[in-house]
Amino acid sequence: MAKITLRLIADTLGISVATASKALKDYPDISQKTKRDVKELAATLKYKPNSFAQSLRNQESKIIGLIIPEIVHHFFANIIHGVIKAAEKEGYLVITLQSDESYENEKKQIELLLEKNVDGILISLAEDTVNFKHIKAIIDEGIPVVLFDKISKLIKCSQVVIDDRKAAFEATKYLIDSGCKTIAHVRGPLKPQTTIHRFLGYKDAIEAHGMIYDKALVFEADHLSYEDGRKVAKEILASNQNIDGIFAFTDLLATGLLVKLKEAGVMIPEEVSIIGFSNWFLSKITSPTLSTVNQPGLEMGMAAFKLLFEELSNKKNKVPTEFVTVEIPTNLVIRNSTR
Question: What pLDDT, on the 0 to 100 scale, is given for residue 53?
Answer without folding.
Answer: 54
